[in-house]
UniProtKB/TrEMBL annotation, chains A, B:
Residues 19-119 form the HTH hxlR-type domain. InterPro entries: HTH_HxlR, WH-like_DNA-bd_sf, WH_DNA-bd_sf. PROSITE patterns: HTH_HXLR. This is Helix-turn-helix transcriptional regulator. GO terms for molecular function: DNA binding. The keyword Glycoprotein does not apply. It comes from the Bacteria. The keyword Transcription regulation applies.
Length: 128, 128
DNA sequence: CCGTATCCTAATCGATACTG
DNA sequence: CAGTATCGATTAGGATACGG
């Protein structure tokens, strides 16, 4: 259960408690706008920093590096530096990254599928 | 493409541009830790405010109401007020909400599935 | 080209108190 | 019980500048 974590620490449950806490931590790392958009943007490609920046509308230099580091740390993204000058740095999804990408793709599909329904819901809500 | 939005407004592309911008807006609403955890927590149940609060470890009163409003506004969650005293307010997923829940469930499964791999990746990363 | 660091503003969040 | 409002404190995030 990702919705639960850190609970009391009866010695027998110490491990599952730790796992829950870790699960939540990972979930919190991943479940944010920029991280998910990056995963979606990389997809099956191998992209350079600047290419990613152009691919993801509105992301700042800082947010991109920050989230790429985060994804790299959690092993979702692999970073390859080509020691040329000027440097060439490429990003690609790892196996875990591609696995997550499947569900992120689902979220994107969902967004488009329900776009109209959501717009209507918003209008109803806002006029109340 | 959820990764793109607001682009230039050549009159022919005005509609798709608007749709992209809306898609991104919705995606940003939804792709946050608390919103996703709430969706996961509600699931197929009908839960009261306090039940939800207990279900989601670490969420504050404020974050819960705030995100419930957000989900309600976007038509993912249905709010039912029973005019008793004390009041009884129940939350359940709508059809769009349940559809999204499927993919959120996928994210949670993913988290548990790759827990070990991620922990290892982190250790490697942190010792560098 | 890519990354880090700094500064500064805006947004987030928790705690608390108050209403129906 | 559920919701709103307010207030500090923390953090996120953009802009900029500089180094490899």
């Amino acid at each position: 259960m990702v919705t639960k974590q850190l609970k009391g620490s009866a010695k027998d449950e110490a491990d599952v408690t730790r796992a829950d806490s870790l699960a939540r931590e990972i979930f919190s790392d991943i479940a944010n706008k920029w991280a998910l958009l990056i995963i979606e943007a990389v997809g099956d490609s191998t992209l350079r920093f600047t290419e990613l920046r152009n691919e993801i509308e509105g992301i700042s230099h800082k947010m991109l590096t920050q989230n790429l580091r985060l994804l790299e740390r959690n092993g979702l993204v692999e970073r390859t530096v080509h020691p040329t000058v000027p440097p060439r740095v490429e990003y690609a999804l790892t196996e875990p990254g591609r696995a997550l990408r499947a569900t992120v793709g689902g979220m994107c599909d969902w967004t488009h599928r329900y776009l109209g329904a959501i717009e209507t819901a918003r209008e109803r809500f806002d006029s109340a």
